[in-house]
Design a protein that fits this description.
The chain is of the alpha+beta class. It contains three helices and eight strands; from the N terminus they run H-E-E-E-E-H-E-E-H-E-E. Helices cover 25% and strands 46% of the residues. Strands 1, 2, 3, 4, 5, 6, 7 and 8 form an eight-stranded antiparallel sheet that branches. Strand 3 (38-40) and strand 4 form a beta hairpin.
Length: 142
């Protein structure tokens, strides 16, 4: 079943839909922002490009290595949520890989502000509904 879950989830996450990205502000309240993102099922790494000064990047940076986040993509009554720990980086090689993957998924380059960073999420939990063939819902740990 794990292979089936991973395969259908991968397929769903390659479609050029936007999603929501949830981070926690320093006061513990959630911040939810619309984003475009990519997910590499082979490594379990999701990526969101943004500005270093954006609230989502600042929230992740402020939380440090234990920053818990969630990415959700929905299409009607089908959805997948990717949860994990996040880190912000401006490393040129990591940024280039994030831009390459974004461009492949969305068929256009992401915005390129001067303070472009990538939030990398080490996905450790996948939740979904109506994306796993005969399974209606469930949780899956990659």
């Amino acid at each position: 079943m794990t292979d089936e879950l991973a395969s259908t989830t991968r397929t769903f996450l390659t479609r050029p839909h936007a999603g929501t990205f949830t981070t926690l502000r320093p006061d513990g309240t959630p911040h939810v922002a619309p984003v475009r993102f990519t997910y590499d099922a082979a490594t379990g790494l999701a990526r969101v490009t943004t500005r270093a000064g954006a609230r989502k990047a600042r929230n992740v940076a402020a939380a440090g290595p234990a920053a818990r986040v969630a990415l959700c993509q929905a299409d009607g009554f089908r959805w997948v949520t990717l949860e994990g720990t996040a880190a912000v980086t401006d490393d040129p090689a990591r940024l280039a890989e994030a831009v390459r993957r974004y461009t492949a998924r969305y068929r256009e380059s992401p915005p390129a502000p001067r303070d472009l960073v990538v939030v990398e999420i080490a996905v450790d939990r996948v939740l979904g509904l109506n994306v796993w063939g005969g399974v209606n819902q469930g949780a899956f740990r990659p």
